[in-house]
Amino acid sequence: MSKSEPDSIPFRTLRPRKRIALVAHDHKKDDLMDWAVYNRHALSSHELYATGTTGLLLEKTLDLPVKRLLSGPLGGDQQIGSLIATGEIDVLIFFWDPMEAQPHDPDIKALLRLGVVWNIPIACDRSTADFLLTSPLMQQSYDALLTDYSEYQQRLKSRIAKLPKH
């Protein structure tokens, strides 16, 4: 996280070679694979991350390196969320199934929430992913503005300070 001036809004610079997380629920894996094959050339200029089976399928289908994490229900969604929070993921492509409840729905909601908290581009369907990947901003540096959460953090510190000491 950087600040351009002492009292300015914090931002994070996304480099031209983006770190893209690719996630798909079971009933959306074929859609993601079709999209990825169609966009293989564009994806090849970026660093790819994926959860479990999706990562394995992408690696074999695209013949590109993919940093594979755990399967989503086994913690992969949380791993990607952690990478977003630490500034190690720049873009999230998440083809989720709106018609089927997932046993790890809270993890999915947390992952999408972190994407919004850290202001990264998120695509949850093919059309949005097409627009995102073909944006000129994908090929250049971009300063993503971050929300200043210092007031929130200060409120938490104040609450903690008021707790009785044992």
Gyration radius, in Å = 18 Å
Low-confidence stretches: none
Distance between the termini: 36 Å
Beta-strand fraction estimate = 15-25%
Note the overall shape.
Answer: globular
Report the count of strand segments: 8
Order the strands across the largest sheet as they lie in space. 5-4-3-6-7
Order of helices and strands: EEEHHEHEHEHEHEH
Classify the helix fraction into a percent range.
40-55%
How many helices? 7
* Average of the residue pLDDT scores: 90
Judged by helices, strands and strand pairing, the structural class is alpha/beta
Main features:
166 residues; globular; 3-stranded antiparallel sheet; alpha/beta; 7 helices
Write the layout of secondary structure elements.
Elements: E1 2-3, E2 10-14, E3 19-24, H1 29-38, H2 40-43, E4 47-51, H3 52-62, E5 66-69, H4 76-85, E6 91-95, H5 105-117, E7 122-123, H6 126-133, E8 142-145, H7 150-162
Parallel strand pairs: 3-4, 3-6, 4-5, 6-7
Antiparallel strand pairs: 1-2, 2-8
Helix pairs in contact: 1-3, 4-5
